[in-house]
Amino acid sequence: MPTLPSLYISHGSPMTALQPGAVRERLAELSADLPRPQAILIATAHWLSAQPRVGGAAQPDTVHDFFGFPAALYDIRYPAPGAPALADRALQLLVGAGLQATLDPRQGLDHGAWVPLRLLYPDADIPVVPLSIQPERDPAHHLAVGRALAPLRDEGVLVIGSGSITHNLGDLRMGYGAEREAPYVRPFIAWVEERLGAGDVDALLDYRRQAPFAQRAHPTDEHLLPLFVALGAAGTQPAAQRIDAGIDHGILAMDIYRFG
């Protein structure tokens, strides 16, 4: 069984499900290039908790955790099965690493999970286990979460972090778009790519102080924290491949990273 890479996927707005743009092609290409996983564990920026929680549902619901979008979006279902045995295995790894993790037997798949997975594996035939992130904890905590889960990559599990390389929804009202990108987006993209390429984990953990326009790119951390889960799951000093999937609304960088 080949060791799988880990992934970080920028999932964009819920409308990515109906208007996927370049990310559809990039994820389809990635899916075709990856060994087929036996299961997926996905850390999503839209499931927040004080301590790590692992979803153990046998058949996770498709959660429409948004308001005011077209009716067609609420009709979408992603009926992938769960993987209770994988959830138990992930929980054991987290607890064994000294993390106060718990199991949630009812958690479904929020749009941070099902929107990108629907583009990556549209048949919804690979079992999925969601993982929460901790918005009050720092990147180092999430790197430790990922490192605890790294053995899963040798067990046929694809570990994914789902968030967004830039995420400032307050700037939607600033009139940015395809013809006018927010000035902080590309410098932040470039800094992350450079630091990942150099294996400079210390700088990445300190991104709030070291990255250009960090506060503007991420007024809050939750959409970048899954990057550290994916990075940690890839082991020490992994190769990082950036996959450019464009910029939505002039503010949401849709970068994908493949680690390892």
From TrEMBL:
<keyword id="KW-0223">Dioxygenase</keyword>
<dbReference type="InterPro" id="IPR014436">
    <property type="entry name" value="Extradiol_dOase_DODA"/>
</dbReference>
<dbReference type="GO" id="GO:0016702">
    <property type="term" value="F:oxidoreductase activity, acting on single donors with incorporation of molecular oxygen, incorporation of two atoms of oxygen"/>
</dbReference>
<keyword id="KW-0479">Metal-binding</keyword>
<keyword id="KW-0862">Zinc</keyword>
<protein>
    <submittedName>
        <fullName>Aromatic ring-opening dioxygenase, catalytic subunit, LigB family</fullName>
    </submittedName>
</protein>
<comment type="similarity">
    <text>Belongs to the DODA-type extradiol aromatic ring-opening dioxygenase family.</text>
</comment>
<dbReference type="InterPro" id="IPR004183">
    <property type="entry name" value="Xdiol_dOase_suB"/>
</dbReference>
<keyword id="KW-0560">Oxidoreductase</keyword>
<feature type="domain" description="Extradiol ring-cleavage dioxygenase class III enzyme subunit B">
    <location>
        <begin position="27"/>
        <end position="237"/>
    </location>
</feature>
<dbReference type="Pfam" id="PF02900">
    <property type="entry name" value="LigB"/>
</dbReference>
<dbReference type="GO" id="GO:0008270">
    <property type="term" value="F:zinc ion binding"/>
</dbReference>
<dbReference type="GO" id="GO:0008198">
    <property type="term" value="F:ferrous iron binding"/>
</dbReference>
